Amino acid sequence: MNSYKNLVAFFLGLLLLTACSDDRLVYEKIYSLPGGKWYADSVLRFELPIAQAGKYDVYYHIRNTLDYPYYNMYVQYTLIDSTGKVLAKHLQHIELMDPKTGEPYGTNLGDIFEHELIALPAYEFPAPGKYIYLIQQYMREDPLPEVLSFGVKLRRYEEGVPAKP
């Protein structure tokens, strides 16, 4: 009877692991920011491996402390193809907290908050290759305090499947 319970527990654990896997995930890289400070001249570089042309979802993964002094963050990204051509360059506004109540978004562990936000939904990459995604903070305060890490995730887009954080 005890071995039966162990076998059932094993298969339930295996089922949970496979249910939580992200088969659409193509790329993930997260930079830790020393001392929780992100300097304006610190450009984070991500090399996105696109195996086949098509649509992909690009996400930001941000970790900040509760002492982060703003409800939002501005970042500027530049997307460059494998030939060096700039495909896009934009300033983006990211809300990390509710602007009215100050209630932090994301999940937390103590006073550290983690956010996974879609940055470029269903972006059409025109050809296979290595794309460079550059990002830097674009806030008035330099360095930007209480930002522990910043990362980029790339997932294959699927029609009719909602973008998942």
Overview of this structure, please?
This protein is 12% helix and 52% strand. Residues 1-19 have low confidence and may be disordered. It has 165 residues and is mainly beta. It has one domain (24-156): Jelly Rolls (Sandwich). The protein has 1 helix and 11 strands. Strand 7 (107-109) and strand 8 (112-125) form a beta hairpin. The protein has one helix at 2-20; strands at 25-32, 37-38, 44-50, 54-65, 72-80, 86-95, 107-109, 112-125, 129-137, 144-145, 147-156. It starts with a helix and ends in a 9-residue tail after the last strand. The strands form 3 sheets. It has a 5-stranded antiparallel beta sheet, with no helix packed on it. It has a 4-stranded antiparallel beta sheet with strand order 3-9-5-6, with no helix packed on it.
What's this, in brief?
By secondary structure, the chain is mainly beta. The chain has one helix and eleven strands.
* Gap between N and C termini: 40 Å
What order do the SSEs take from the amino end to the carboxyl end, as H and E? HEEEEEEEEEEE
Task: Quickly give the structural class.
Answer: mainly beta
Number of helices: 1
CATH names the topology as Jelly Rolls
Count of extended strands: 11
Which stretches are poorly predicted, pLDDT < 50 over at least 5 residues? 1-19
Overall radius of gyration: 19 Å
Sheet-strand content, in percent, reads over 45%
In order across it, which strands form the biggest sheet?
Answer: 1-11-4-8-7
**Cα shape:** globular
- Helix share of residues? 10-25%
> What is the average of the pLDDT values?
88
**CATH architecture name:** Sandwich
Biggest beta sheet attributes:
5 strands, antiparallel
**What's the CATH class label?**
Mainly Beta
- Total separate domains: 1
